[in-house]
Amino acid sequence: MRSVLPVLTVLLAILVIWYAAAVRLNSAWTYDQAARAEAEVTFGEVVKDAMVQERPVLPAPHQVAAGLWDGFAGQAITSKKSLVYHGWVTLSATMVGFLIGTLGGILLAVGIVHNKAMDLSVMPWAIASQTIPILAIAPMVIVVLASVGVTGLLPKAVISAYLSFFPVVVGMVKGLRSPDQMMLDQLRTYSASKGQTFWKLRLPASVPYLFTSLKVSVAASLVGAIVGELPAGASAGLGARLLSGSYYGQTIQIWSALFAAALLAAGLVMIVGMIERRTLVRMGMRT
Amino acid sequence: MKDTMNQDTPVIEARGLNLTFDTADGAVHALKDVNLTIGKGEFVSFIGPSGCGKTTFLRCIAALETPTSGTLTVNGMTPDQARMARAYGYVFQAAGLYPWRTIAGNIRLPLEIMGFDRAEQAARVERVLDLVDLNGFGGKFPWQLSGGMQQRASIARALAFDADILLMDEPFGALDEIVRDRLNEELLKLWARTGKTIGFVTHSIPEAVYLSTKIVVMSPRPGRITDVIESPLPKERPLDIRDSREFIEIAHRVREGLRAGHGDEV
Predict the structure, then answer these.
(1) Over the stretch A152-199, which tens digit does the pLDDT of each residue have?
(2) Do the beta carbons of residue A230 and residue A189 sit within 8 Å?
(3) Taking a C-beta distance cutoff of 8 angstroms, is the pair B151, B172 a contact?
(4) Could B109 and A284 be called an inter-chain contact, meaning their C-beta atoms sit closer than 8 Å?
(5) Is residue B50 classed exposed, middle or buried when 0-12, 13-18 and 19+ CB atoms within 10 A define those classes?
């Protein structure tokens, strides 16, 4: 309970700064209009106007909140204006991408840990893959996959997986290598096979590392899915919502979609965190 | 095989054993011309300063290191064959229990790997838990136990598959003296009850003298044996035997041996 006050203070500070910035940024338009009408405006009128503009440079917090509320609750969830609809489109691509990225990342890590050649050859490529801007590669993925007839959810999932596999590889390589020499020696005295060493020691030892990675990669998956929606001119998904908002100068729509994406990301990370706690408790570890 | 083995057949025999490690600073002679015979049911301590090769020798017996030259047999086999035949259990300095397994689960680990069936696993876990006096703790996780209890669990794990030889590498080195005393006493009882052959690495003179029927004094650079002392102490050893004249005399001889080994170096 003692943390409530500081958290609220920070939240309040953000809101104050946000409102101040909204007044400052949106005032230009008001002054402009007034000058054209050759009228005088008071500061009070400027503030009042800055809160209710239809296409503000920076929407005020309550406008974004209203936009979010309308997006989530004000529309039928099948409507093209519904954030639930767009969120679901993005979420489904995110989940598929997350699944592909996680499985691929784990398999790569297993290969890297068990094979010297893979250790030397795969890791540099994995690192290089992450230095390429995703925005540059996303259109190519979509075009290439479309040319072989793959469209819709899968290309987005591939881009999503491209971003999410990397944290999993890094975390799992560290996790699979976390058992110390003594523990490996001990298994050797039991004449344990490589497979037994993997299933009984390396894999369970890597679980805490895996979950740390999954929290990063699930958020990256979402970013990937949204980026995957941008270049395709997709009509559905949070990315499409962002894009159409920017085409038509609908800043409230953009900010609403942004916050919807942020809420989705927070929810996903929280779910992974919950599964992590349950798993580690079941594995007898203190958390 | 156990029955056909003659009482006089050495359990562990090293002849002219050498081991050199190639390191960045040149070759390190970890073991030089080591000759040692360990008979069935003996409790042998290896004592010496760090770098004297006592742990390395134990690791050679366990086939964790490969000697450069010389012969080493365990139950008449090569160390590798002996390992496959489950000739020994190895207890490391740290308990090394898996935090995600219960105590029973940890003891079951070697049994699972060696392919014992479930009923047999459960029976053996119960038996060795009893042997190390940890009944009722099978369902606990390692972090719920004290350091001394964890080490007892790791001894139970090494006993679970009925190896005749128990190799222990400073198993109580990380524990405080009071716990160590108690565990030493329990280890002697365990040894008396099971008749195992025990190889025990330590750097504590009282511990070596209290536990052993044979004390192997070693010295470093190159790692070698400088003295082998057959202890005249009786098998039955209460803790206060450490105040007896005999005990103090043996301890003195061990100390002399260690000092002589150091003298060579200067």
Answers:
(1) 889 999 999 999 999 999 999 999 999 999 999 999 999 999 999 999
(2) no
(3) yes
(4) no
(5) exposed
Averaged pLDDT of chain B: 90
- Judging contacts by C-beta atoms under 8 Å, the chain A residues touching residue B151 are none
Strand order in the sheet with B165-169: B88-91, B165-169, B197-202, B43-47, B214-219, B224-230
Closest Cβ–Cβ partner in A185, A190, A207 for B110: A190
Q: Does domain B1-87+164-176+195-266 have CATH number 2.40.37.20?
A: no
pLDDT classification of A271: cutoffs 50, 70, 90? very high
Structure tokens at A44: 């009070």
Asked if A190 and B84 come within 8 Å (Cβ–Cβ), the reply is no
pLDDT beyond 70 at A54: yes
Cα torsion at B157, B162, B164, B168 (round to 10°)?
0
User: What confidence tens digit (pLDDT) does each residue in B77-88 have?
Assistant: 999 999 999 999
Q: Which residue of B has its CA nearest to A201?
A: B98
The letter for the amino acid at A40 is E
Tokens 């042997």 sit at which residue? B131
Q: Do A183 and B96 touch (CB under 8 A)?
A: yes
Alpha-carbon distance A241 to B175, whole Å? 63
Give residue B3's pLDDT band: very low, low, confident or very high (50, 70, 90): very low
- The residue in chain B having the minimum alpha-carbon distance to the alpha carbon of residue A185 is B64
How many contacts does A have with B, using Cβ atoms within 8 A?
54
pLDDT confidence band for B5 (50 / 70 / 90): very low
pLDDT of residue A160: 95
Show residues of chain B in contact with A191, CB under 8 Å.
83-84, 86, 113-114
Q: What interface predicted TM-score (ipTM) does this complex get?
A: 0.87
Residue A256 CB neighbour total at 10 angstroms: 27
At residue B6, does pLDDT exceed 60? Answer: no
CA distance linking residue B64 with residue A140, whole number of Å: 52
pLDDT in the model for residue B266: 38
Residues of chain B with CATH 3.40.50.300: 1-87+164-176+195-266
Tokens at residue B104, please? Answer: 């029973």
Residues of B in contact with A207 (CB under 8 A): 100
Question: B100, A207: Cβ pair inside 8 Å?
Answer: yes
Do residues B67 and B19 touch, judged by C-beta distance below 8 A?
yes
CB contact under 8 A, B113 and A191: yes
Give the integer Cα–Cα distance in Å for B260 and B70: 25
Q: What length does chain B have?
A: 266
Q: How many CA atoms lie within 13 A of B1 on its CB side?
A: 11
Distance in angstroms (rounded) separating the CA atoms of residues A144 and A149: 9
Nearest residue to B106 (alpha-carbon basis) of B147, B133, B142: B142
CB contact under 8 A, B96 and A186: yes
Helix (H, G, I), strand (E, B) or coil at B91: strand
| Residue B31 per-residue DSSP state | E
Q: Give the best residue of B98, B116, B154 to mutate against chain A (max A CB count within 10 A).
A: B98
